[in-house]
Design brief:
heterodimer, A: mainly alpha, MetI-like fold, 11 helices, B: mainly alpha, about 85% helix, elongated, transport (chain B), MetI-like_sf (chain B)
C-alpha cells in the first residue's frame, strides 16, 4: 500500500541527526541557535519603526497592542475558546481515526474496496467544508468542532492503517496460534505496534487542525482568535490584526514543540529500542 | 499499487462501485430521515447540480483561476524553497542558526496571516498567490534542507580529496543527493497549494472555486455548493495521483538503489 504511507515520509525530517560537537559550551550553542532570530527581530523593529504605510504598523505598536489585549483578557478568552474547539475536534478525529484504522488495517478486502473513497475524502480541501458545515449547522461551537474533526481524521486514519499493516507477520501468526481473543489482540498487539505511526499521523493532523480552527472562525464566529483577527481587520484596527495573526503563529509553534516533547515521552520505549 | 489491482481484478472494481453506491444510499437515507438540516440536498439534486456545473462557463473560469493561483504560488515556493534549502542545508552553521526560525515558520498557520496580506495587497489573485507561496514554501524548504544535509562521509571526503569544483559538486553531488527529498517536498506542497488556494477564496473575495462555494452557500444554492465541493475534491485527488506517479517514475533510480 504505497499510497497510504504518504504522510509519514516527511516526518523523518524531524528526527534530525544531532551532531554533538565536543568543545562547544551550552552558552555558545544557545547563541548560535538564537542570533538569527534576534537579527530578524531587530531588523523588523528598526525597519517598521519609520513605516508610513498605514497597513504596516511598527513592531513596537503591534507588541504594545498584543500586551494590552493579553492583559485585558480579550486574547486569552479568544484563545481558550479556539483551543477548546481544537482539542475537542482533534480528540474526536483521533478516536474515530484509530478505531476505523484498526478495522480497515485488519480487513484487507474492505480496505481495498473503500480505498478510493478514503482518498477522495482526504483530498477535499478542508477549508471548502467550512461554509457548508457552518452554513448548515450554524455559527456555534459544535459545527466548528466537527469541521476540525473531519479534516484531522484522514491523516490519523491513513497512518493507523499503515501502522497495522506494519505489524510483523510472525507476531500476527503467533496471536492466531495462541488464540488471543480479539479484544486483547487489538489492545496489546496491534495498537502498540501501530502506535508510532498513529502518533506521526496525529502530528500531521495538528497543523491541519490549527488551520481549520482559524479558518472556521475567520469565516463566521462571535468568539475566538480567528474572530479577533477578522473583527480587527474589518474595523481597520491594523495593529490588532497583526497582533492576532502573530499570536496564532506563536500558538502554532508552541503546540508543535509541545507535541514533539509529548511524542518523545509516549514513544520512549520505541525510540530506545532503536527501531528504524 | 491500487492501480494495478484495479486492472487485474474486475470484482474489486465492482465492489468499489458498490461501496460508493452504499455511501450515496446512506446519504439519501440521512437526508430523508431529517437528521440533517432541511436544506441539505439529496443525491439526485447534487448529481443534477454536478451535471449543470460542469457545462457552465463560470465553473471553468473559476477552476482556471484557482489552478492559476495555486500553480503560480507553488512554482514561486518551489524555486525559493529549493534555492534557500540547498544553501542552508549545505552550510551546517547556517543550518543550526536558522532551525528555530524555520520551525516557527513551518508551524505558522499561514491562513491566519491572510487578513494582513489582504490589507496590504487587496482581495485579489495577487494576494492569493502570495498566501499560497507562503504556505507551500515550508515543506519544500524543510525537505530540501534535510536532503542537502545528509551527505555521506565517504562522498564528502571524495569531493575534498579530488578537489571537485564547487559548481560541479553542486550539480552532480548535492542536487542529485537531495533530489528524492526535494521531490517529496514538492509533492506535499502541490497538494497544499490547492488546499490553500481554495481556502483563501472561501474566506476572501478572490475569484475561484472556493469563492463559488461561499457564494452558492450564501445564496442558499446548496446543491451547487456541494457540486463545487465535489469538484474541489476531485481536483485535489487528481493532483495527488498525478504527482505520485510522476515522482515514482522520475525517481526510479533512487528506489532501485535503495530497494
Amino acid at each position: 500500500m504505497a499510497e497510504t504511507a504518504v504522510s509519514t515520509r516527511p516526518d523523518n525530517a524531524r528526527r534530525r541527526t544531532r551532531t554533538v560537537r565536543t568543545g562547544t559550551s551550552p552558552a555558545a550553542r544557545l547563541l548560535e541557535r538564537s542570533w538569527l532570530i534576534a537579527v530578524v527581530f531587530i531588523l523588523w523593529w528598526v525597519l517598521s519603526a519609520r513605516s508610513t504605510n498605514f497597513f504596516v504598523p511598527s513592531l513596537q505598536e503591534i507588541l504594545a497592542v498584543l500586551a494590552r489585549d493579553l492583559s485585558s483578557g480579550v486574547i486569552p478568552d479568544g484563545a481558550a475558546y479556539s483551543l477548546t474547539n481544537l482539542a475537542a475536534g482533534l480528540l474526536l478525529a483521533v478516536a474515530v481515526g484509530i478505531v476505523l484504522g484498526l478495522i480497515l488495517g485488519e480487513a484487507n478486502r474492505l480496505r481495498q474496496v473503500v480505498d478510493p473513497v478514503i482518498h477522495f475524502f482526504r483530498s477535499v480541501p478542508q477549508a471548502a467544508l467550512v461554509p457548508l458545515i457552518i452554513g448548515a449547522f450554524g455559527m456555534g461551537q459544535g459545527p466548528k468542532i466537527y469541521t476540525i474533526a473531519f479534516a484531522c481524521m484522514w491523516p490519523v486514519l491513513l497512518n493507523t492503517i499503515d501502522g497495522v499493516l506494519g505489524v510483523e507477520p510472525t507476531v500476527r501468526r503467533f496471536a492466531k496460534v495462541y488464540r488471543i481473543p480479539p479484544g486483547l489482540y487489538f489492545r496489546r498487539v496491534v495498537l502498540p505496534a501501530a502506535l508510532p505511526q498513529i502518533v506521526a499521523g496525529v502530528r500531521v493532523a495538528l497543523p491541519i487542525g490549527i488551520t481549520v480552527m482559524v479558518v472556521s472562525e475567520l469565516f463566521a464566529a462571535t468568539r475566538g482568535l480567528g474572530f479577533y483577527i477578522l473583527n480587527s481587520s474589518a474595523t481597520f484596527q491594523v495593529p490588532e490584526t497583526w497582533a492576532g495573526a502573530l499570536f496564532v503563529g506563536v500558538i502554532g509553534y508552541i503546540l508543535s514543540v509541545a507535541f514533539v516533547l509529548c511524542e518523545r515521552r509516549i514513544l520512549r520505549w520505541y525510540i530506545k529500542s532503536g527501531a528504524k | 499499487m491500487s492501480n494495478q489491482a484495479r486492472t487485474v481484478d474486475p470484482g474489486l472494481a465492482l465492489q468499489r462501485l458498490l461501496a460508493v453506491a452504499v455511501l450515496l444510499a446512506v446519504w439519501q437515507v440521512v437526508v430523508f430521515s431529517g437528521v440533517l438540516p432541511s436544506m441539505t440536498p439529496g443525491v439526485v439534486e447534487i448529481a443534477a447540480a454536478i451535471g449543470s456545473t460542469i457545462t457552465s462557463a463560470v465553473f471553468w473560469a473559476s477552476l482556471g483561476k484557482t489552478m492559476l493561483a495555486a500553480l503560480s504560488g507553488w512554482l514561486i515556493a518551489v524555486a525559493a524553497g529549493t534555492g534557500l534549502g540547498l544553501l542552508v542545508g549545505s552550510l551546517p552553521r547556517l543550518d543550526r542558526s536558522s532551525s528555530i526560525l524555520i520551525d516557527f515558520g513551518r508551524s505558522f498557520p499561514v491562513l491566519a496571516l491572510m487578513p494582513v496580506v489582504i490589507m496590504m495587497l487587496g482581495s485579489n489573485t495577487r494576494m492569493e498567490i502570495v498566501v499560497v507561496a507562503l504556505s507551500c514554501l515550508w515543506p519544500v524548504l524543510v525537505q530540501t534542507i534535510y536532503g542537502a544535509r545528509r551527505q555521506e562521509a565517504a562522498v564528502v571526503d571524495t569531493v575534498r580529496t579530488f578537489r571537485i569544483p564547487k559548481l560541479l559538486w553542486f550539480r552532480r553531488v548535492l542536487l542529485p543527493g537531495a533530489m528524492p527529498f526535494i521531490a517529496t517536498g514538492i509533492r506535499i506542497s502541490a497538494s497544499i497549494s490547492i488546499l490553500v488556494a481554495v481556502g483563501v477564496e472561501v474566506l476572501s473575495q478572490a475569484p475561484g472555486i472556493g469563492r463559488q462555494i461561499t457564494l452558492a452557500q450564501q445564496a442558499q444554492h446548496w446543491d451547487k455548493a456541494f457540486a463545487y465541493l465535489f469538484f474541489a475534491g476531485l481536483v485535489g485527488w487528481g493532483i495527488a495521483l498525478l504527482l505520485q506517479t510522476a515522482e515514482a517514475r522520475l525517481l526510479k533510480w533512487n528506489r532501485q538503489a535503495n530497494g
